[in-house]
Design a protein that fits this description.
Radius of gyration: 18 Å
Strand content: 5-15%
Distance between the termini: 37 Å
Strand order of the largest sheet: 2-1-3-4-5
Largest sheet: 5 strands, mixed
Helix content: 40-55%
Number of strands: 5
Shape: globular
Order of helices and strands: HHHHEHEHEHHHHHEE
Amino acid sequence: KRSFFSMLRALAPCRRLLNQLPFSPAPAAAAAVAAVPRRAYPLRAFQAQEALPQTVQDVLLRLKQGNARFVVEQQEGRLQDRTRRSELKAGQQPYAVVVSCADSRVVPELAFDTGLGELFVVRVAGNVANQSTVASVEFACSVLQARVVVVLGHEQCGAVAAARAGGDNGPNLNTLLNRIHPAVKACPKNADLAEIIKKNARNTCIELLGSSTILRRAYKSGELDIVPAYYELETGHVEFF
């Protein structure tokens, strides 16, 4: 029996739609919303007949368009009703994984204007790639067939700030912060917090690939993309980089 990934190897690799779709929070977000097709059916009548994105570039486009709607407060709020909940009793097939910080101000499902069953969200302070994170992402990609992993850092991340400040925070928190220290050391001493947060997100992407044969194989074949991103607290804008 052929694996899911082997069946997709005939597809041309889909690399970095991010480089093709740059936009800044305000005017470009409005433009992206304008490009989203409007539906003739009522919001509550929306069902799963509309296919969820299947390719890497489709997933990235959907995430960017959803975030653009969130920024300008034009969320569609689909796939959240009783019918959708009933559909998901049979199983889940999220098209993207978001490795996010546990910060209460950052909610990936809202930031990307998604509904139930669309995102597989792994939350841990500092969005680090510990063993549980890696295992969860492997499950989402190999079993649930997610196409994209987004490592989502965010503005004013307390875990990254604590790693930069140093000191003894107790054995548990010290263990977590040790995973962020490489990003602190890689940045200039006068670097602002945002630069370190973005470096930490990049490092997590690298760690996911370095720690997992499953993810590395899918990434090299073009069936999976792993991308860093940065969430701005006030605007809600997600910068992919």
